[in-house]
Each structure stands twice: as structure tokens, then as C-alpha cells.
Amino acid sequence: MNESLSFIFINACLVNNFVLAYFLGICPFLGVSGNIGTASRMGGAVMFVMLVSSMCAYGIHLMLVAIDAPYLQLISYIVVIASTVQLVEMIIKKFSPALFRALGIFLPLITTNCAILGLALFQTNKGYDFIQSLIYALGAGAGFTIALVIMAGIREDLDIADTPKVVRGTAIVLMVAGMLSLTFMGFAGLGG
Amino acid sequence: MNQAELDKLVEAPNSWHMVRALAGIGLMCALLIVTTYELTFETIKQNKAEVLERAIFKVVPGAQSKTTFIVKDGQVEKLQGESNSGLKYYAGYDDSGKLIGVALEAAGQGFQDIVRVLYGFSPDKQAIVGMEVLESKETPGLGDKIEKDETFLKNFEALDVSLNESGDNLKNEIIFVKNGTKANPWELDGITGATISSKAIAAILQASASQNMPFLNQNIENFKQQ
Amino acid sequence: MNEANNKLDTNTFIKGLWKENPVFVQVLGMCPVLAVTNSATNGMAMGLATAFVLIMSSTLVSLLRNFIPKQVRIATFILIIATFVTVAEYLIQAISIDIHKALGAFISLIVVNCLILGRAEAFASKNSVGKSILDATGMGVGFTFALLCLGGVREILGTGTFFGIQILGASFEPWILMILPGGGFFTLGAWLLLFNYMKERKAAKMQEATA
Question: Residue C25 carries which DSSP code?
């Protein structure tokens, strides 16, 4: 399919935001959106893992097509992506301790995150080539970061607001997420 | 393939038990997957063929049987076995084996994401005689009216795609008009509340038709062989 | 089996339905919960698929629990879960292409549903096969029930139908909002609110009783 790169990026980032339209990566979205600093570092880590896994998935897909074994897709995606991220984590730890401190603690958390596997599956379904896949991963990661940071900003304010006792916790976060999701619907049509 | 990944996983602490557990379970899983795949393969293939056939018979009204064609080196050929590459032409025939229409897929950008449609072309009428949305993520309740809205689907009873004099393009482009203002057979009557989605359908059909209709008309004899 | 053991077993089953409901109480496995519950049928199908994977993988993990060394347990669990998800995907395709199309990639994403790995790790790897199956069935039914609640509410308000049958009359103007992604967040938020409210009231009553 011939889709322009800018269309893929905007689509993955805003129109079909992974968190707010596809509900992927909700666990970290609810879990680490407590403050902006953590949220943006988490976003960076997710974007990084997405890039790595997008490349892996592209390679695996080529291989599976070559040996004609579509039934191994899911199992090999999850195993290869998890081990690659682990490897990359070790490499970062060795060569760039500063970067490791910034991203490191999040890496194991997000390898088996739905957003990562979802990205790999979607890019295969859509039949993207290598460059398109990379752009798709970048867009999805950026979209995830945007959603997470906005959410964190709102939650920081929400903490000091006088909310009724029953809505505190996950319930109100979900309500806010619902409103954000509606807001993001306004981006529809941007890509075309 | 699987083995290599497993070995990678146990790289660090390499004890016999771990390898045994991973290899054993890996083997078991592989067996399970392959068995299921083999057992369900025929049913799934049949299901998919049925879904496709249903869609084709819907966009080529009156069709009783179909044959799939592909284009190879500029030549129309019957599809042998399976192929995933290239555009496929599905020719529909009536009881007596007469060609009544050719269905083909088209895709393009909708409001939310890519929209994929299947449409049927009737060589006798030189018109699009049916359209079915195969895949869309258009807004439920608004944009997805392109799949259900009756007045919109009426557009595709006979949407004119006749060729110009030199036969290399459509005589009239398929254009989108506002709801209720359709005056010519090549205009597409839009849906109020789903303007962008219905516009997208018009654009998708225009692009696909202007590309494929001249070719189809030139080679229509090839499709008559069931 | 003696009386005490029997009782324990029913409890193992019941707790997943209500007291430790995976969705409403533990808030686990959110992605599929929100993404495919725009109709009761989809919610039901997704719930059943997840329950199938949950029960099968819990059984296998529990059977093999003495064979798997501690260090590689997560890797093997993921392997087992991924296998059953692949199996489920092919089965669904064989049963109905339409359901497969409606659920899309979210069937594959059952792999990363924290609920399944969580049950394998926290329960099945430490308990007997019978108990693990009971626990998994309880959790699976609880999960399906929750998805049905969400899908039902969203379908009734969003399109005026329930399992595709018109129930709210032709004059009902559907709240399209409910079947949009935002509606998923709102509906789950509202259910959680209800659960919180009931919990609070129960706690208040208990306090009254003791005072």
C-alpha cells in the first residue's frame, strides 16, 4: 500500500493514538502517569523499545514469509522482542550508564506491554516496508508520550483538587482519559 | 527457528535443567500449534473463500459463479492456486456462463484510516453496479454510514464509468456532490454527517476506475472465458 | 475429599467472579477490556477466548510446575500462553471469520494480558491441577462477565440494541459517544465508581455495627 510517510506518522501519533484510540499500553498509562518527569522518561523508553521491536518484527516477518510458517508469528514476535530488548538493555548498561539510569528501570516493564506487541502486529497487517515501519514506530511512540505527559499534567492538578472520596483512584483517571480520547478524535482527517 | 530463540534465552546461566525445560516445552508448544494449524487449515480456507464469494456476488448482482484472474506481464491470466501479490480481478458469470461483471478491490485514505472497498464493474452497462466496504475504521454512527446508508448505496446501482473517445480514461470523472444534488450518472450523492467518508469513497473509486477501466475494456474478451 | 477441602475449592472458584474480579477489582488486562467491548457479542467472544487461554495455560503450567526451574519460569509461561493464543486464533477463524474480523489483532494481544501471566505466576505454579483449573475458570468467567457488562452497557446506550436485537425502540436516539473509544473509558470508569461506592457503603455499615 502506498501511504506517505507523513500520513503514517500523523496517523499513528494523533488520529489513531495508541493509548486513546486503540487502548494499547493502558497499564503504564494508568500506572506511571503520576508526575510529568517520570511520564516523559517512560515515554522515551517506550519510543526506544518500539523502534527496536519494529525492526525485529520486520526481520522476523520476512523470515516467516520465506519459510512459510505464519503460525509462528505471535510466538516468535514475543520471544524475539523480549530477548532483544533485554540484550539492548545490557548493552546500554555497559556503555552508557547515564542513559540507563534515565530509561533503564522502565525497559523490563514495557517489553511485554500490549503497545509494543500491538505495533509489531499492526505494521505486519498493514504491510509496511522497512522505512514505513520505522516511521510508524516513531509516530506511535510519540503519540504514547504525548498522551502520557498530558495525563500526568492533569493528574498532578487533580491530586490537589477536592474530589469526592468515591471517585478517587482509577475511576477518575479513566473519566479524564475518556475526555482526552474525545479530544483526540478532533484530529481525525488530519492525515489526508 | 524456535530452538535458536530458546538458546538465546538461556544463554547466561546454562544448566541442563533449564535447557531441558525450555526445549521440552518449546517442542510441546510447536506440536500443539502445528496440529491446530493443520486441523483448522481447510475450514479457514473455506470460510475465507465464502466471505469473498459473498462479497463478489453482492457487488456483481446476478452472478452465480466466479473465476479469479491476475495480470502477469500485461497479460490477463487465470489464477492458478494462490497468490498474494498484485491486483486480482474477480469475474462473475450468470447461469449460462455469460460474463456479467468484474469485481476488483480498491483502497484509499478515509476519515480515520485506510478504507478498503470491493466494487463491481458491468461491461454491458459501462457502469459500477455494486460497492461493498471490506474494511474501515470510520467513526461508528457517522462515517460508517458508507456501509449502510441506503440512499448512498443507491449510487452504486449504476455509476457511470464509460470511457472517453480515445479510450484511455474515463469520459467523466466520478465526483462527489452534496446530498440530494445528484444530476448526472457519474456523480456520487454524499451522506449528510459523513461527508468526508463519502468523499473518500468517491476519490478511491475515481482513482481505481480511471486506472483500471481502460485496461478492463481492452481485455474484456479474456475475462469471458470462465 | 473431606468437607473442609471442598469448601476451599468452591471459594477458589467464587472469588474470581466477584470478590477478586479481575476487571472491576484488580483492574487487570485493560487493553482488550476497553478496545473490543463496543457490543455485547464482541465482549462475550473476547471474554470466552481469554477464558479459554487462561484455563488451558493454567492447567499446563500447573501440570509442569515441578519440571520448570525457577529461573526460566517467566519465559516458559510466556511460551505456553503464546501457544494457546495462537491455537485460539485459529479456532476462532475456523468458527467464524466475522468474529475474527471484529476482534482483529486484539486476539493476539491476549498474550500480553497481565491477568493470564499473573494467574500462572501467582496461582497455577504453586497449586495442584484441580485447584488451578478451578481458579482459572473462576477468573475466566469473572472476566467474561465483566466484559459482558461493559459491552452490554455500551451497546444498549450506543446503538439501542443488545446482542443485535433492538430493545430500546425506534424513537431512541443512540448515544454514539458510547461506542467510540472515549465511551469505553467512561463506561469502565462508571463501573469502577459503582464498585467503590458499594465498598464504601459496606465499610460504613460494618463500622456502624461495631460501634
Answer: T
Contact A80, C78 (CB under 8 A): no
Residue numbers in B near A71 (CB within 8 A) = 33-34, 36-37
C32 in any annotated domain: yes
Bridging pattern class, strands B127-135 and C165-166: unpaired
Q: Nearest to residue A172, comparing CAs of C193, C177, C35, C199?
A: C193
SS3 B128: strand
Q: Sort out which chain C residues have CB atoms less than 8 A from A80's CB and list them.
A: none
Which of A78, A121, A171 is closest, CB to CB, to C189? Answer: A171
* Residue among C82, C184, C193 whose CB faces A23 most closely: C184
pLDDT of residue C208: 86
The half-sphere exposure of C77 on its side-chain side, counting CA atoms within 13 A, is: 25
What is the amino acid identity at position C108?
S
Domain that holds residue C40: 3-151
Instruction: Quickly count helices (H) and strands (E) in chain B.
Output: 6, 9
At A30-87, the pLDDT tens digits run 777 777 888 888 888 888 889 988 999 999 999 998 888 888 888 888 888 888 878 8
User: Of all helices (H) and strands (E), which one includes residue A171?
Assistant: helix A170-185
Q: Which residues pair with B164 in a beta bridge?
A: none
| CB atoms A182 and C182 under 8 Å | yes
Interface ipTM > 0.90: no
Q: Between chains, do C69 and B17 touch, taking CB under 8 Å as contact?
A: yes
**Could you state, in order of their start, the residue ranges of all structural domains in chain A?**
5-28+36-183
Which residue in chain B has the smallest CA separation from C158? B141
Cβ–Cβ gap B9/A11 under 8 Å: no
CA separation for the pair B157, B208 (Å, rounded): 18
With CA atoms as reference, the chain B residue closest to A67 would be B1
Q: Which three cell numbers stand for residue B79?
A: 489464477
Q: What is the mean pLDDT of chain B?
A: 79
- Interface contact B47-C93, CB threshold 8 A: yes
CA distance readout (Å), C102 to A49, C81, C93: 28, 22, 11
Classify burial at B222, counting beta carbons within 10 Å of its beta carbon; exposed 0-12, middle 13-18, buried 19 or more.
middle
Measure the CA–CA gap between A62 and B134, rounded to whole angstroms: 26
Q: C158 in a domain, yes or no?
A: no
- Candidates A16, A17, A18, A26: best to mutate against C (most CBs of C within 10 A) is A26
Neighbours of B164 (CB within 10 A): 11
pTM of the complete model:
0.82
Is C71's CB within 8 Å of B13's CB?
yes
How far is the C-alpha of A46 from the C-alpha of A138, rounded, in Å?
10
User: What is the bridge-based pairing of β-strands B99-109 and B175-177?
Assistant: unpaired
Q: 3-state DSSP call for residue C166? A: strand
Residues of C whose CB is below 8 A from A172: 189
B139 contact residues in A (CB cutoff 8 A): 185, 188
Chains that touch C (3 or more CB pairs under 8 A): A, B
